């Protein structure tokens, strides 16, 4: 079965073709980052309009790369939510229009299920069950994953998401949008030990996170500096990254201990962070645990994870072509596949 995946929940248009026997055949991404950068964040209306421009050309490029025709597509998966309503509507309406025109079924996909299953696109891929650390721009959650659609929430952020904390802290340090990758690069130049920031909720006894206080601590630290020279900037970036990484690593280990599971899967944009990967790998090696990551290109939003998640949910494919979007949507409400 050949599944076309369409991702348009936020500021990237991601298109991919996934074949249930042959694997990922093609994927293309158009990021709107440059367009939104001058506004310091995503402008929803601009995002929607740009998705309209990109979806079909990127689909044609995927078909070309894969050597396929439109008529070869067996089903069309699209992100139904959560995300920006207007942006989601673009993907949903194009997916349903294509489905209707080709008389092929459509599969609405939960964006976070896409992120969550993206490590299964890697080789080697983890087998169920595993603990998932989902750390993206809008979410920070620990989940026990026993199968597709069998997600038990173990803990989550009570305020900002990890990626959001990276982005907001980067802004405080005068870095562009989205600041996560830039802050991480800056931290590479930092000196350990000059600043120490709090580890929020490290000893809270549960698996929840809180990151907004960390951002405030950075703000205080920045204000205390006479000048924010490049080295000081880098030292603060490192202190922030060390704090957030330590909390994510320790809580992930606690989740593994609590569930008795031996595998950790990391998904979402913050999963691209090098220090997080290093620290998780180190901690896992010591405890004989295994950690899995998505291929780097599939940490942030992409079409491959939507095509793949759709392929796991062919049972839910429908010919109704009556669609809505779900800007807010709780992952734990999904049915098992
Ligand atoms: P959600 O999936 O929750 O709706 P999103 O789609 O915006 O949110 P992703 O695309 O998964 O989130 O990830 C984007 C986030 O990842 C941004 O906050 C970005 O700063 C962060 N990020 C990307 N690369 C890195 C990195 N190397 N280090 C830290 N953060 C990073
Ligand atoms: Mg994004
Ligand atoms: Fe995302």
| Ligand types | adenosine-5'-triphosphate, magnesium ion, fe (iii) ion
Question: What is the helix content?
Answer: 40-55%
Strand order, biggest sheet?
A: 3-2-1-4-5
Overall mean pLDDT stands at 97
The CATH superfamily of the largest domain is known as ATPase, nucleotide binding domain
What share of residues are in beta strands?
15-25%
| Gyration radius from CA atoms, angstroms | 20 Å
CATH topology of the largest domain: Nucleotidyltransferase, domain 5
Total domains: 2
Shape: globular
Main location: cytoplasm
Family: Belongs to the KAE1 / TsaD family.
Keywords: Acyltransferase, Cytoplasm, Iron, Metal-binding, Transferase, tRNA processing
Pfam families: TsaD
Summarize this entry quickly.
The chain has 337 residues and is α/β, with parallel strands linked by helices. The chain is 41% helix and 19% strand. The chain has two domains: 2-116 and 298-333, ATPase, nucleotide binding domain (Nucleotidyltransferase, domain 5, 2-Layer Sandwich), CATH 3.30.420.40; 124-293, Nucleotidyltransferase, domain 5, CATH 3.30.420.40.
